[in-house]
Prior knowledge:
Helix content is 15%, strand content 26%. By secondary structure, it is α/β, with parallel strands linked by helices. The protein has a single domain, classed as 4-Layer Sandwich (Purple Acid Phosphatase, chain A, domain 2). The strands form 3 sheets. The chain has a 6-stranded mixed beta sheet with strand order 5-6-7-10-12-11, with no helix packed on it. Strand 11 (177-181) and strand 12 (184-188) form a beta hairpin. The longest helix is centred in the N-terminal third of the chain and has 13 residues, at 47-59.
Amino acid sequence: xxxxxxKEINMKILHLSDTHGCHRRLRGMPxxxxxxxxxxxxxxxxxxxxxxxMNWFCDQSYPHKIFICGNHDDCLYGANIDxxxxxxxxxxxxxxxxxxIKFYGVPMFTGDCVTDRQSRNYANIPHDTxxxxxxxxxxxxxxxxxxxxxxxxxxxxxxxxxxxKAHLFGHIHAQHGVRExxxxxxxxxxxxxxxxxxxNTPNVLSI
Length: 207
């Protein structure tokens, strides 16, 4: 008699976001299977800032690395990025599968947010996505600052139709942290604090 043993996937993810040019100040980051940056790695949105980040990101000794762009990273709007290492993935309304886990990334470019393109980007998130990476949080989840919920209602609505394991984002510096809700891990990985003076610790997630 044959028995099929399905191996449970245990993946450790190190999540950061909103480093705003301070990525080289990060020291002693813990081990993980996948390093993920959910955008705003530049401060002024310049090409030299973006290139410096990508060089640093490629140099990090993690088996797999994923990044998307935030609203500060407009210099990469429409860009074709060449020269990334084979284990580094730039997701721009695209996905990648690693060890059976399907990742999908939606950036937050200003040019999309002032049109209906961002709504279409969120609507096109595949239904089989396991880990969603956006720059914006979903409405009401680690998105509160200045007495306002800054998250996206469109992301919240889309999440309700998916079977996610995790949603990774940033954008709202004051809400750095991790929350589990309805069986989904939500991670706000904002590294730069709300006053832009200090750095938070990257989030470690177990999937």
